[in-house]
Amino acid sequence: QVQLVQSGGGLVQSGGSLRLSCAASGLTLDYYAIGWFRQVPEKEREGVSCTLQNNVTTFYADSVKGRFTISRDYAKNTVFLQMNRLTVEDTGRYYCAVDPFCSRADDYDYWGQGSQVTVSS
Q: 14: which residues sit within 8 A by CB, 6+ positions away?
């Protein structure tokens, strides 16, 4: 059974930092692209970042470039999203997901349970 268990998130002041983790069981993340998405009420799930299997090719939404960093720990079968210089606009529920490719949200097969990130002004 595939599980993606997220940790991290919480409440932080604007300008602060948080790190999200996504630990996988039931599959080896080495063979998958990992995406991070965020969702706010009444809006579609937005792609934030994605890393391919080689952990070298990464993608970021324009709104987070230079502030967020995606990485993975192969030994721990875990992916991270380091979020720095957070702003109120970064508030939302963040999800990790796995797929053979970096793609649209609808294409991802497995999802984490979500982590709430709230940034206060």
A: 86, 87, 88, 119, 120, 121
Tell me how far apart the alpha carbons of residues 3 and 91 are, in angstroms, rounded to a whole number: 25
CB-CB contact of 98 with 24 (8 Å) = yes
Nearest to 21 by CA among 13, 29, 85: 29
What amino acid occupies position 37? F
Each residue of 80-100: pLDDT tens digit? Answer: 999 999 999 999 999 999 999
